[in-house]
Amino acid sequence: MAGIKKITTPLTADEIKDLQAGDRVAITGVIYTGRDAAHKNLVNALKEGKALPIELKNQIIYYVGPAPAKPGQAIGSCGPTTSGRMDAYAPTLIELGLKGMIGKGPRNGKVIEAMKKYGAVYLAAIGGAAAVIARSVKKAEVVAYPELGPEAVYRLEVEDFPCIVAIDCEGNNLYERGVEEYSI
Amino acid sequence: MKEIAINKIVETVRELCINAACDLPQDVEELIKNNQAQEESEFGKYIFAQIIDNVQLARRETQAMCQDTGITVVYVEMGQDVHITGGSLVDAINEGVRQGYKDGYLRKSVVNDPVFLRKNTGDNTPAVIHMEIVPGDKLKIMIVPKGAGSENMGALKMLKPSDGIEGVKEFILKTVREAGGNPCPPVVVGVGIGGTMEKATILAKKALTRKAGEYNPDSNYRALEEELLEKINRLGIGPQGLGGRVTALAVHIEAFPTHIATLPVAVNLNCHASRHSEAIL
To answer: Among partner residues B64, B67, B180, which is closest to A64 by beta-carbon distance?
Structure first.
């Protein structure tokens, strides 16, 4: 576990190539939230030929449904949700230019193939460290699907948001590598 | 006959919801800390440190330790000499959940229909309530907020008696292995064996609320808990599934007599934050 790489959104192709499985990163800039229901809505909109409510090119989507903010907070606790539930939708969004996803847990082969083909990275945040993670979110506003409540799409302004590169754009996979190393 | 007014129940459930989401029981925190030293992987050590930091921050700020404050599972043990006055017990519990999730800034994570509508109910109701009538004049209420990340990784299998203890072990290990990094390991593994389909799953979930560090009092089941914990921690899944020595913090097994022709086994996983809070009225 070397030093922490600082990255700023939107991401460039060169920045993506520099991120390798096992790197720790700190993200600053704008990221968007989206989980089950929002992904379903986004992909349905594309199928119907409608414009998306957010521009995904070179952006990062964070799989999270935040808890409500207490007075004085930008956001409530906001740790990652299980990414595997978004596997059915992710390749479509990666093809559109999405460069990063933040979540927890492994991804399936189709997602990893799309990441390799279009150059995207999958970042793991620590599931359960939700109150700590919230401290790196400076501003949060709903930008799409407010009717979904905690599943709405939020635009987050983050500073040094902590993640680990779990799967890089070459398909190197920390979930496989780490478990291989420690299984007996 | 002891009378308990529903207002008291509403207020108790409200407080328990907030407490369960924000204040991890000390015994669970100790269990996490005791396991921290066992972890060898660098990411694992980093994740343990973040988890402990998070538990303490959440407690200090009365803030949810995880954004997934769960669907609210409520265990009620009602003494047969208790009389509830002023309204319905179920309505009072749901009102307590409604108030707790609002006042505690907890996430509302319940949809009104599982298949067709999936519209958020907006107040985290209805709760999943398990009622038991017991001797005495006390009312015990336990709140267990259950997040779906770990809940989705649970499984039930109706084994044949001939599958025996090896079948039981194989199924539990398979369930934990396939769950991998999804349920936010290191996990607590709740296992229910015996009874019927639904009895096994209820036992598995109830097992998650056993005091951390305690074993099944039966020596056979205790030995099975110890053996399975060791085997699970040889899987290498580690904290968050990124590889490491500590995949599970504990295995809690509960057993119940069963039918001559069956051997049900249910596995209910919980993340490291094994949240629960209880009160006795």
So the answer is: B67
pTM of the model: 0.95
DSSP secondary structure string for all residues of chain A? --PEEEEESSPPHHHHHH--TT-EEEEEEEEEE--HHHHHHHHHHHHTTPPPSS--TT-EEE---PPPPPTT-SSS--PPPBGGGGTTTHHHHHHTT--EEEEBS---HHHHHHHHHHT-EEEE--TT-HHHHHTTEEEEEEEE-GGGGGGSEEEEEEEEEEEEEEE-TT--BHHHHHHHHH--
Each residue's pLDDT expressed in tens, for chain A with a length of 184 residues: 568 999 999 999 999 999 999 999 999 999 999 999 999 999 999 999 999 999 999 999 999 999 999 999 999 999 999 999 999 999 999 999 999 999 999 999 999 999 999 999 999 999 989 999 999 999 999 999 999 999 999 999 999 999 999 999 999 999 999 999 999 8
CB–CB contact B182 A106 (8 Å): yes
Q: Among 3.20.130.10, 3.40.47.10, 3.90.850.10, 2.115.10.20, name the CATH number for the domain at A4-182.
A: 3.20.130.10
Task: Name the B residues in 62-91 with CB < 8 Å from any A CB.
Answer: 63-69
Inter-residue contact B70 to A67 (CB < 8 Å) = no
Neighbours of A139 (CB within 10 A): 13
A60 forms beta bridges with A100
- Domain spans in chain A, listed from the N-terminal domain onward: 4-182
Q: Is A26 on the interface with B (CB under 8 A)?
A: no
Measured distance CA(B114)–CA(B107) in Å, rounded: 18
Greatest Cα-to-Cα distance within chain B, rounded to the nearest angstrom: 58
